[in-house]
Amino acid sequence: MELEELQSAWTQMSDELNHQKKLTNQIILDMTKQKYQNKFTTITKYETIGAVVCFAIAFFVLLNFGKLDTWYLQICGVLTLSFLIVLPVMVLTTLKKIKNIDILNGSYKENLKFYLKIKNRLLRLQQVGIAVGFVGLLFIVPVTSKIISNKNVFLTSLKTEQYVVFTITLIVMVFFCRWAYKGYVKVTQSAQELIQELE
Amino acid sequence: MRKEGVFTELIQEHQALLYKVTSIYTENKEDQEDLFQEIVYQLWKYFDSFRNDSKITTWMYRVAMNTSITFIKKKKRRPDSVPIADAFLKQSDTNDDAYDERLRLLYQHLKHLNTLEKGLIFLLLEGKSYKEIAQITGLNDSNVGTKISRIKKKLKTNMAK
At what angle do helices A3-19 and B115-125 cross, to 10 degrees? Predict the structure, then answer.
């Protein structure tokens, strides 16, 4: 094959392709939308799983609420339920706002700015969530202890192994929160970089 | 007309251009679909920033080629691409064996070129002048000339083998 033949094969292919108009408007728009939505897929997945777990635990506590037989355990139960329901609902609402961003209306830059605003709100929400999570142990532990093993931790003195389990849980929580929060910061940063790219 | 309509019309009109860029830089249908989708997305993303100080096709070539170079650097599969293979990704609708063979040979020769060489020869095959190639690639005119003569020599050597 000579260079001229290369050129002529290319030209022939170009002519044929110019007659093929097989992409529909819908396919083009789907490609654009899907690429945009893919950017939020991972974070949406983890947040949804987290929310489902919280709701499942809240449902379990609600089903066994009758076992909380003193006024202070009932207060702990209400606080636990609020913590397990309110925070995920706020996160899911924020996510819904992100998902409802219509890339085809308004400029990409405006959409991303809006996204960043919501994402920052979500980040603050996570900071609050982490802080409340640690304080929350003070009311979640008595509730779960009463429901699962029918023990009122306010009345029984803890054994050494229970202190160990509690300490290990705290350490695991610290690492988990650090890991999860870093993930949020990374995503927020990535969105910010996208905006900067457009400027 | 709304932005959406203008954009889809633009892609419809120049889909052959996008197809050809993706065919140069990929070696299988899956990668080609992914790259095609990525280019459409990048064109949409930067559509607002297009200014009429250059031809729309010059801008499209530039975005498509930059996206392709980034794509092959990353070289990883992207999830959930829209299946466009059946709708578009066909080199030929004819049953001309000789033509198909020429196309196969064409791509076989192009495969031996590096990323920059592929881009330059692609633009040359598209009938672009050295000046236009320089505008698209950001190289200067004389540099384009030098590089293209080297590529031609390389292709000739490969073809002679």
Answer: 70
